[in-house]
Amino acid sequence: MGLLYKSTRSGRTASASEAILKGLSEDGGLFVPETIPALDKAPEELGKMSYQEVAYEVMKLFLTDFTEEELKSCIAGAYDEKFDTEVIAPLVEAEGVWYLELFHGKTIAFKDMALSILPYLMITAAKKNHVDREIVILTATSGDTGKAAMAGFADVPGTKIIVFYPKNGVSPIQEKQMLTQKGDNVLVVGIHGNFDDAQTGVKKLFSDRGLEKEMLDAGYQFSSANSINIGRLVPQIVYYVYAYSRLLTEGRIGDAEKINVVVPTGNFGNILAAYYAKQMGLPIAKLICASNENKVLFDFFSTGEYDKNREFVLTSSPSMDILISSNLERLIYHISGDDPVKTAQLMEALARDGHYEITEGMRQKLSDFYGGYAEEQETFDKIRSLYEDTGYVIDTHTAVAAAVYDRYREETDDRTPTVIASTASPFKFARSVMTAIDPGYGDADWDDFSLVDELSRIANVKVPAAVEEIRTAPILHHTECGKDEMEAVVKKFLGI
């Protein structure tokens, strides 16, 4: 019997391919593996493998209803020349820590690591389950998921993709990346609201049974490319396993030596993948969850209370400007003892009151995690000091993680070897990065692409193709809507 997936809010189960196709359970729950499989290859052995080979060794344990041929085909299609480095996820040492660069894909953000393979997994899953309807990918984005998903699904037969993003809540480069996306099956929509509004609206559409029937009658079915889809989460586990095995093979750490992992965190999927890697047996000590000024996760780890009833802050790290961290539901499920009733109660409280509190017993199961946050000035100071000391330039999200790690080390004197997940290219947030390095770059006479060129010069790094290709690209998408108009926009696009 292969590994099954359970809804966090009921006892409903699905195979891996069914869970990938559905994205979200009918009861609103997220799919989690019934058990976390153990790695069946030693890190020493994995360290001799390519990224693609490590991906197979990890993903085969989770996606057990995919054949070896199917899974290897998906991996080969995803991790190819779309990435600008052969190793896919290089490690760069600076100031005694390793930055795991997850931004060498087509859209220069870590979302590429999972969204490059998701279309292949989804199309394979559709064939396995004899799906004859067109799959409509419905996604909310805080800036990076949308473009990465569109790049993966554009013009893929049998699919359509609709992306909602907060109109004034992403960087200019992020927005232009989305609005210039080609593809007859693509729609990009700026909503008048924040990311949480977009995400809540998408979840509401998924759970609308009346809309589901209309969709089915018209020959469509929804699925998700957000990290609520287990097909997003599983590929993210791979790069933590890969990073550890590379450090071991290169002699940077000793046999079975533990590492800390620091992750700039918004929707919680990226750090949850590291948690799953640890559950699989990877020698990870602390999982350091780094928040920006929207520090709902910091407060949760500090107090055991999750409270989204607070001011929403627009920061220079917009992909983390989130007050409802969807993937935290999966962790809540696990620390509740895999109790779907308890999890459902807490999620209902969040939806009703914007607040919930976990039990003391659940809090005790969070000892793997350390929560920290960085304010805007700390983020900018870290970008500048790292550049001045080493010449290495990081983006604003990675800088949040680096600043939080500096404070963690000061507080604890923990000298465990540490990997920081570097989640986006600094070119994606050129204005903020350049202003951090020298406030003079914040002057109005510097347009975004002039700043990109200047960043290339001072960092001695070539401008990524993802930025070059949008420099003169025409705007193809002009749709905007209120947060209560999302269903109407979807229906109009689909002709129902």
Structural description of this entry:
The protein is α/β, with parallel strands linked by helices. Helix content is 44%, strand content 16%. The chain has helices at 16-22, 43-46, 51-62, 68-78, 111-115, 118-128, 145-153, 172-179, 195-206, 209-217, 230-249, 269-279, 296-303, 328-335, 340-353, 360-363, 376-390, 396-412, 430-437, 448-459, 465-468, 486-494; strands spanning 5-7, 13-14, 31-33, 91-94, 97-101, 134-140, 159-166, 186-192, 220-223, 259-264, 284-291, 305-307, 355-357, 369-373, 418-422, 479-482. The strands form four sheets. Strands 4-5-15-10-11-14 form a six-stranded mixed β-sheet, with helices on both faces. Strands 9-6-7-8-16 form a five-stranded parallel β-sheet, sandwiched between helices. Helix 12 links the parallel strand 10 (259-264) and strand 11 (284-291). Helix 4 (68-78) packs antiparallel against helix 6 (118-128) and helix 11 (230-249) crosses helix 12. The longest helix is centred in the middle third of the chain and has 20 residues, at 230-249.
What's the gist of this structure?
The chain is α/β, with parallel strands linked by helices and 496 residues long. Helices cover 44% and strands 16% of the residues.
Please supply descriptive tags for the structure shown above.
44% helix, alpha/beta, EC 4.2.3.1, six-stranded mixed β-sheet, pyridoxal phosphate, threonine synthase activity, 22 helices, Thr_synth_N_sf, five-stranded parallel β-sheet, 496 residues, globular, Thr_synthase-like
